[in-house]
Design a protein that fits this description.
Blueprint: H1 2-13, H2 15-26, H3 29-43, H4 52-64, H5 70-99, H6 110-131, H7 137-147, H8 152-177, H9 181-185, H10 187-221
Helix pairs in contact: 1-2, 2-4, 3-5, 4-8, 5-7, 5-8, 6-7, 6-8
């Protein structure tokens, strides 16, 4: 198990070298690998640690030197991101009511459920689009949207929009800047930044959200 974790960490931090080696060894099969990675990261709620952002950036850099096709990469990975979110949403929508089907059970809080549904109907679009750029958030947001019974049409609109913005912007950034010598030399640091900065923002947002109810209670008591 430690060896597997070590390999995963090495793959995340040196995804450029691993991906380039795979392209040179297996050629077009790289598209199947990339589709699988993006689909699993966005579609399987227990796999939020896969290197989505850095992977897309490196794909753009490989497109920039002619090792991969830019339009094919963008189109295929947009499809993977959309289908992954749709799968995650469907799982949440199917199993959420089954888990909380007894209104008077210890696991069901009807008021919290109704608040979650109302939140996702009103702000879920922003959450889904912004969450695409945040590790962990992009994996859990579609699942929670399904549990909260966000309407399928509304979810699909923001799913497709967010996927297109996420994939095109990061692959485009890699295509334009990924082969600049300074960027290539500092790619490990850039990967860490792409993992940590959105994660810190998401953690701060969660902390602020948890403080609001406490502050409201304190104001009420005061």
């Amino acid at each position: 198990m430690p060896e597997a974790l070590q390999f995963l960490l090495d793959f995340v931090l040196h995804v450029d070298g691993h991906l380039q080696t795979f392209v040179q060894t297996y050629g077009a099969w790289v598209y199947a690998l990339l589709f699988l990675v993006i689909f699993v990261e966005t579609g399987v709620v227990v796999m939020p640690f896969l290197p989505g952002d850095s992977l897309l950036f490196v794909v753009g850099a490989l497109c920039g030197v002619g090792l991969m096709s830019l339009p094919l990469s963008m189109g295929l990975l947009i499809a993977a991101a959309v289908l992954g979110n749709q799968t995650n949403y469907a799982v949440g929508r199917h199993f959420g009511p089954r888990v909380f089907q007894w209104e008077h059970s210890r696991f069901f809080n009807k008021r919290a459920f109704e608040q979650a549904h109302a939140f996702y109907e009103r702000y879920g679009g922003v959450t889904l689009i912004a969450g695409r750029f945040m590790p962990f958030v992009r994996t859990f947001a579609p699942f929670v949207a399904g549990v909260a019974q966000m309407t399928r049409r509304r979810f699909t609109f923001f799913d497709v929009t967010g996927a297109a913005l996420w994939v095109v912007s990061l692959i485009g950034a890699g295509y334009l800047f990924g082969n600049i010598p300074w960027v290539k030399h500092n790619l490990t640091h850039i990967v860490w930044a792409m993992i940590l900065i959105p994660g810190v923002i998401a953690a701060y947002g969660t902390w602020k959200a948890r403080r609001r109810p406490s502050a409201a209670v304190a104001d009420g008591l005061g």
